[in-house]
Here is the input.
Amino acid sequence: MNSPADALAQVAADLRDLLSGDTLARLSDASRAEALAGLGEISRLADAGIVETAATADTEFGHRFGCRGMNEMLRRAALVDASTAARIMRAADAVQRETNLVSGEWMPARWPAMREALLDGAVGVDGLLAAVAPLERARDRITVEQRMWADANLAAFARGDELPGADDADRGKAPRASAEDLKQFAAALAIALDPDGAEPSDHRAQARRSFTVGRLRDGLHPVRGHLTPELAAQWKLIDDAYNNPKVGGAPDTGVRFALDDDPCSDDEFNSDPRKVIDPRTPAQKRHDALAAALGIAARHSEMPSLGGAAPTLVVHVDAADFAAGTGWATLPGSDAAVPLHVATHTACTGAVQRVLFDEGRIVGITTTDRVFTVFQRRAIVARDKECLIPGCHVSATWCEIHHVTEHARGGPTHTDNGVPLCWWHHRSLGQSGWEIRMDGGLPQIRGPAWWDAEQKWRTPRLSTLDTRRWRRQTQRNVVMQE
Here is the structure.
C-alpha cells in the first residue's frame, strides 16, 4: 500500500501532466467550466488535507522541526504567508478532535458535520471559516444542542442537500453553496439562535467608538478610529452616491467659514472643570459629530442621489420584534446586525417607512407608474438584498429593477413584478439561460443546466421568507429540547 507521501506525489504528478503544454488552453467552453469545477474540488480537498494534518498534530510538532510553532511550520512546508497560515490554524481549531484520556479514541470535533463537509471536498477553508465564524462569536450564548443543529444545517447547505425541517417546496438536491452564501446563511442562523446577542456586543462597541484626525504630515491629516455599524453603513451609502459612475462626482458645495463670538462661552454646563456633565471621551465626541454630519449631509439637497433618492440609511426590523423589544435590526451593505435601539434612534431622527410583508411578500405598497418609485425600490431592496442571480452579490442598491413580466406585455410596475438585477445580468438575461418568475409575490429563479441539473424553480435562499422560516424552526427546536 502506498504511503500518504507517495499518494500525494502521484496526485501532484498527474496535475503536472495536466498543466504541461496547452491542454487547458485548448478547452472548449463546456470543458473549461468542467475543469474549473474539478480543480475547485481538488483545491478544497487539498485545503482539507492541510487542515486535518495540522489539526491532528501535537503542540510540539513544529518545535521538533526547528520551527517556533505550527504557523511557521505551515509557512515553510506549504509555502504560504503568515495570514494564510493563521487562517489554516483557525480552521484546524474548528475541526480539531481531542483524544479520550482513558481509551485513546478520538472525540467528536466542535463542528463535526462541517468537518465531514471539509473532508469530502464540499467546502474549503474559506467556506468553513465563513460558516462557523458568526456562531463562534455567540458561543457563550447558545447551547451545545443549538450548535449541533446549526452545524447540521450548515453542512447540508454547503453540500446543497435537503435542509433539516425544509418545506416540501424546497426538498431535493440544490447546487453547492459558495463561501459568500455560507457566510450569509450562518449570519441568519446566528441571529435566529442568539436574538439578544447584539446588546452585549453593542455595549463593548460603544465604549470603543472613536474618530481621530491626526497631525499634518506631508500635506495630509491621517484619520483613524472605529465606527459603529450604523455609522459605517451610512457612510457607505454616501460613498456609493458620490462614486456612482452615472454621477459626475461631488458638487461644489460653496461652503464658507466665518469667525463669530462663541454664544456658549459663559455656559457653565459646557465649561464644568470637573468634566462630569458629558462623560464622553474626545474621540467619542468626534465620532458622534461625524455621525450627525453624515445624517445632515445625506438629507442635504445638494447631495448626489442614489437610486433616484438621497442616500438614506434604512434600518430593517421585523414589526413583531420591534413591538416585543427583542431581536435584531439589520443594515443594508453591512455584515453586522445591530440592537433594536438603533432602529428606534434612526426612526426618531429620520422618516419611518413601513413595508408590510406577508410570508415574505410585500403587500403594503401599490403603484401604477412605469418607473419604480423610490419607495418601491427600497421595499424591493429590503426583500431581495442583492442581485437575484445566485452567486452574484452586487448589492440591490446598485441594481436595476427588472420587470419580471415586461411592461410592454402588461406587466405592472409593482413590487410583485420587480426584482433587482445588476447591470450585466439584466442586460444578458435573455441569453444567459437564467429564468425568473414570481410566485405569490415571491421571486423564483431557474438556472441553466451547468448550475442546476434538475432545472428546478427555486426561491432564493436568503429571502426574508427563509430567514423567518429558520427562526421559526429554531424556536420549535428549542421548545422540543426543553
User: Anything to note?
Assistant: The beta strands are 210-213, 223-226, 329-330, 337-338, 357-358, 361-362, 400-403, 418-421, 435-439, 442-446. The chain has three domains: 35-194, 223-245+264-352, 357-451.
